[in-house]
Structures are given as C-alpha cells and as structure tokens.
C-alpha cells in the first residue's frame, strides 16, 4: 500500500513566480546574465531602525511565545497607523498579527469556503486566491479585470457575479499583477450595491495601499462603516517596509469572527516571531521617509518601463496606477504569454511572468515587476527589443 493523500491536495495550486525564479537561478548558475523583473518584492533593504528594533527585542529577551493575536503594543500601533492614514477608528481587539499577508487570505478563504459556496475573486489576480478557493472546495467565480478599464474592477461587474451562494468577495486594489487601482466612485457604488447582499463577506487585500502614483488615491474599504461588520482587511509590512522575508502581516476582522480567526492562528502557527513584532512597531511608529523614498523610486521606474514597453512594436501597456507591476498587452507580437515568458528568459535573459500565471484572463499579457534599478530596466528592455527583432515578431515584420 502506498501513501494516500487527501483529495483536496490535488486542487491546491501554486505561485509560478517561484518556478520562474528557480529557472532564472539555474540559468545564472550556468553563467547566463539574467535581469530579474519577475520577482514581486521591493529591491530595498528594510530600514535600519526597524532592523535595530528586532535586534534590541532579541537582546531584551523576547524569545518566547506571544499572545496568538500578537502583542498588544503592536495591535495598538496598527490601530494608530490606520487612524493616521485612513482617519478610521479601529479596535486593537479586532486586529490579528499574522506571518505575512498570505495567511489572512488563507484564513479568510478557509473560514468561508466549502463545497456549494461561491467565492468571487479577481482574475487576473494573485494566484493564491484561486488556489485556496479550490482547496477549500468552494467554487471560484472569476471577476475579469479588463485592460479597457485600466484593470480596475467596476461595481457592476462585481455585483452581477453575486448569487445567494456567494459567501466571500475578494477585492485587491492597488492590484497584483496589473497595477490597477479602483477609483472611489466605483468603490462607493460597490459598497452601496452590497447593501442588497448582506450575506456576502468581503476581503479587501490592500497590501499595496501605500503605493499609488500620479496623485491616484487609495480608497480603503475600511472607510465604509456600513460594511465594517463583514469586512476583513488584509495588509502588512512586506511591501510597504521592504520586509517580505520577515513574514509580518496583519488583518482587521469583524468583531463577530475575530475569535475564529485567532483560533485558526492557534491551530496553525501559535504566534508570529516575537522580535519581528517589535520591528513591526518601529516600522509603524517610526519615520516614514524610507517609505516615501521607495515609492518615489518606483514612480520613476514606472515611467521608464511603461514608456519603454510602449515603444516596442507589438506591445502596449496601460498606465499602472499602483503597486510595482506593469501588465503589458503582447498580443501584437503573435506570441502566447507562455511563449514570450520562455523566449524572454532563455534568449533575452530577462525574467518576467506570463499573465496566465495569474489566471485565465491574464492570457495575452506579461507581468513586469519594476522593483529593479532604472539601469537594469533599460537593459532588460534593450535585450527584449533585440530578441524580438531577431525572433521576427509578427509586429516587427
Ligand atoms: N496580496 C497580494 C496582492 C500580493 O501580491 C502578495 C505578495 O506578493 C500578498 C498578498 C502576500 O504578501 P506576504 O508576502 O505578506 O504574504
């Protein structure tokens, strides 16, 4: 008799970003030069005062378990930060500190998903939404994000997908992989429409909330009191403070289910690394100039990459409003997204991700992360232009 895995394991997806990273590393190991525009993390170090706070916490003896929902001073710092940025009062008792934004996603989907339930999620979108929805046994209901709308969701598109079986609606603005930012008018309309569907919980993934460009406003769903009793906010330190490896995230839960979320944490990870939690306080309470500098650097790189992409025959790229991704349309090259991903990696030495890594509606697009230097971005684009000319792209003929 061989081992027998649970059936649900066959429904679990993955993030192909990690596969492309492995292929890029293997090519580098063979001596090939690779410019990595595949990776979804800031290319900056965590600011020094945050690192020091973690070191101090370790030296001060914070080596044991913390409360499962996180230390109170950190949950209070989260509440202060939300008040400062969004002018919204939240109770630190509704905050759960988690090891990365992904954990909020996993908990929220597992809490609502089961066979017969429907969960609406953005497509193209962060691949883990669809993966965990399927894992939970629920039916994934894709919400297509369209280039003609700047990849922002529209209220009508969302509301038309809600049925009596819908348990959870997932929204993400600013979005991965498209950089789409939903305007306030659409969010107002969505929230008004949700009044007719009180059975639907909402998970708003706002992990890129502090990264918007050209004066675009990030509108948090937390600022709508009428849905607070069914809103789960996903946020964290990974992107804002260049802390992806620290595994620090937080969620704000409705009062009625925060204890359930904490119970999942107790069953899963007990608590988040104690010293990292002290670093989290330093990040939120300390100077924010490193965040502003990083966002300014992303704004400059965004300008460079969007202009360079639009200059390539067969490629067109709408302005991403936020995050640090560009999502160009490559249909004019005559290649599929997968073909372009492979050609660019193997021939041009540029790692980017196929739009299909983010769902079926990503076909015909590629995701370029511009979390890399202007110099490297220009070099990547030079290589891509040359490779396409050599390969005789349909548009270049
Ligand atoms: N949500 C979105 C939209 C993301 O792009 C990511 C990471 O890429 C996450 C959540 C997860 O962040 P974390 O690294 O904190 O788990």
Describe the protein in words.
It is a single chain. By secondary structure, this protein is of the alpha/beta class. The chain has two domains: 7-45 and 289-391, Aspartate Aminotransferase, domain 1 (Alpha-Beta Complex), CATH 3.90.1150.10; 64-285, Aspartate Aminotransferase, domain 2 (3-Layer(aba) Sandwich). The protein is 39% helix and 13% strand. The chain contains twelve helices and twelve strands. It has a seven-stranded mixed β-sheet with strand order 2-8-7-6-5-3-4, sandwiched between helices. Strands 9-12-11 form a three-stranded antiparallel β-sheet. Helix 7 (184-194) links the parallel strand 5 and strand 6. Helix 2 (48-59) runs antiparallel to helix 9 and helix 11 (337-348) packs across helix 12 (374-391). The model has no long low-confidence stretch (mean pLDDT 96).
Query: What is the CATH topology assignment of the largest domain?
Result: Aspartate Aminotransferase, domain 2
Quick one: CATH class of the largest domain? Alpha Beta
The small molecules bound here are: pyridoxal-5'-phosphate
Based on Cα principal axes, name the global outline. globular
- Strand order, biggest sheet? 2-8-7-6-5-3-4
Order of helices and strands: HEHHEHEHEHEHEEEHHHEHEEEH
Strand content: 5-15%
Rg to the nearest angstrom?
21 Å
CATH homolog superfamily of the largest domain: Type I PLP-dependent aspartate aminotransferase-like (Major domain)
Mean pLDDT metric: 96
């Amino acid at each position: 008799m061989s081992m027998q895995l649970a059936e649900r394991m066959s429904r679990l997806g993955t993030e192909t970003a990690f596969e492309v990273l492995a292929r890029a590393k293997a090519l580098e190991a063979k001596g090939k030069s690779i410019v990595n525009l595949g990776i979804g993390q800031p290319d900056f170090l965590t600011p020094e005062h945050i690192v020091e706070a973690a070191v101090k916490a370790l030296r001060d003896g914070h080596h044991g378990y913390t409360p499962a929902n996180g230390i109170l001073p950190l949950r209070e710092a989260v509440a202060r930060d939300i008040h400062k940025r969004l002018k919204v009062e939240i109770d630190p008792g509704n905050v759960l500190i988690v090891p990365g934004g992904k954990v909020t996603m996993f908990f929220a989907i597992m809490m609502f998903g089961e066979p017969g339930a429907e969960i609406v999620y953005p497509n193209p979108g962060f691949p883990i939404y669809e993966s965990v929805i399927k894992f939970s046994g629920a039916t994934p209901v894709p919400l297509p994000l369209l280039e003609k709308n700047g990849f922002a969701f529209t209220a009508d598109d969302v509301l038309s997908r809600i049925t009596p079986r819908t348990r959870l609606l997932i929204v993400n603005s600013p979005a991965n992989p498209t950089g789409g930012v939903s305007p306030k008018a659409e969010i107002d309309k969505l929230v008004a429409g949700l009044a007719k569907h009180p059975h639907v919980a909402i998970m708003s993934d706002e992990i890129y909330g502090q990264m918007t460009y050209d004066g675009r406003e990030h509108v948090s769903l937390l600022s709508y009191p009428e849905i607070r009793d069914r809103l789960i906010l996903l946020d964290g330190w990974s992107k804002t403070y260049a802390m992806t490896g620290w595994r620090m995230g937080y969620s704000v839960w409705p009062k009625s289910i925060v204890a359930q979320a904490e119970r999942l944490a107790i069953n899963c990870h007990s608590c988040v690394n104690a010293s990292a939690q002290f670093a989290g306080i330093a990040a939120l309470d300390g100077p924010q100039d490193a965040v502003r500098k990083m966002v300014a650097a992303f704004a400059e790189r965004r300008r460079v990459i969007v202009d360079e992409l639009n200059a390539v025959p067969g490629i067109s790229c709408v302005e991403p409003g936020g995050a640090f991704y560009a999502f160009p349309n490559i249909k004019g090259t005559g290649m599929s997204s997968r073909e372009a991903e492979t050609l660019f990696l193997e021939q041009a030495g540029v790692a980017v991700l196929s739009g299909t890594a983010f769902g079926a509606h990503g076909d015909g697009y590629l995701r370029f992360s511009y979390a890399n230097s202007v110099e490297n971005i220009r070099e990547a684009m030079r290589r891509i232009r040359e490779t396409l000319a050599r390969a005789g792209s349909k548009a270049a003929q």
